[in-house]
Amino acid sequence: SKDVVFVVDVSGSVGDAGVESAKGEIVRAVERFGSDVRFAAVFFAAEVRTWHPEMVAASPAAKAEFARYLRGLGRGSRTDVMTALNAGLAIVSRRVEAKRAAQERFADPVTMVVVSDGQENLRATPGDVVGDRLDRVDLSRVVVHAIAVGGKDSGLMVALARRGGGSYRVVP
What we know:
- It contains five helices and seven strands.
- By secondary structure, the chain is α/β, with parallel strands linked by helices.
- Strands 1, 2, 3, 4, 5, 6 and 7 form a seven-stranded mixed sheet that branches.
- A hairpin with a 3-residue loop joins strand 2 (38-44) and strand 3.
- Helix 4 (127-135) runs parallel beside helix 5.
- The longest helix has 21 residues, at 81-101.
- The model has no long low-confidence stretch (mean pLDDT 87).
């Protein structure tokens, strides 16, 4: 995809090692992006932190700024997945609308990659609520992938990938 939004869990349940591993993998992924790729990132625990509210071109300066931002990003405590999903989907929706308005072609879908252990403790988000949120997005132009970290399946993450037309992976 030429448009990617990362939504990444940095809560206590992911653990220090998991957060650092996720940050490292995302930096490496962004480093491989060409300058024609646009990206944004949302990090969440009990609160949501957005690197940029809109997608930015993956220029060398943006990549360096992103890496610096991640170095200063600490681990949070509790987990609120739904607020972060809404923030990520809002960025995705704005990008879809911007591409439509500019009459850009959709060679590839706008992509959202969610990385979490799926363990919420501020509220529980049922899979049908995730589906309802995704139904509000033009899924013919969007794909949502879910990566469950920590080696355990997550019903929430499965529902997210299934309804978002993406892939679901479990990683240690």
